[in-house]
């Protein structure tokens, strides 16, 4: 079984490679060609589907929807010039910090 980090690294490489493909032949290229706003909307739609799957307790459906969320997050990050490494850096910086303390430290 692959680790989530390995899978996300391969996913990110695939998204990067698809940037240069025709939007007619690549779903990823099609999303990216429509801009960050469209990528964000699609990510939100997938996140809602994952939340609904989680509420029903259907594990297989939730896993499939979570995979869609991660894919669309990768596309959204790419559309904004970011990567999963950027997200990992933020998460690493938050390690060991209480969620309440971290939230309180954010600007209002």
What's the gist of this structure?
The chain is mainly alpha-helical and 108 residues long. The protein has helices at 4-18, 27-33, 36-56, 59-79, 84-94, 99-105.
List keywords for this structure.
PRib-ATP_PPHydrolase-like, 108 residues, HisE, Helix Hairpins, ATP binding, histidine biosynthesis
Unreliable stretches: none
Strand content: under 5%
Distance between the termini: 42 Å
Major beta-sheet overview: none
- Helix-strand topology string: HHHHHH
Query: Roughly how much helix do the residues carry, as a percent range?
Result: over 70%
What is the C-alpha radius of gyration, as a whole number of Å? 16 Å
Question: How would you describe the shape?
Answer: globular
Query: What is CATH's topology name?
Result: Helix Hairpins
The level 1 CATH classification is: Mainly Alpha
Helix and strand composition category: mainly alpha
Q: Which CATH architecture would you pick? A: Orthogonal Bundle
Q: How many separate domains?
A: 1
Which whole number gives the mean pLDDT?
94
Count the helices. How many? 6
* Count of beta strands: 0
**CATH-assigned homologous superfamily:** MazG-like
Protein name: Phosphoribosyl-ATP pyrophosphatase
GO molecular function: ATP binding; phosphoribosyl-ATP diphosphatase activity
EC number: 3.6.1.31
Enzyme class: hydrolase
């Amino acid at each position: 079984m692959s680790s989530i980090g390995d899978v996300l690294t391969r996913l990110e490489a695939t998204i990067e490679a698809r940037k240069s493909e025709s939007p007619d032949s690549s779903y990823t290229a099609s999303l990216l060609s429509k801009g960050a706003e469209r990528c964000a909307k699609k990510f939100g739609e997938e996140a809602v589907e994952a939340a609904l799957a989680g509420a029903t307790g259907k594990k297989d459906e939730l896993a499939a929807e979570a995979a869609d969320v991660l894919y669309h997050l990768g596309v959204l990050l790419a559309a904004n010039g970011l990567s999963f490494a950027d997200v990992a850096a933020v998460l690493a910086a938050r390690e060991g910090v209480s969620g309440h303390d971290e939230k309180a430290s954010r600007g209002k």
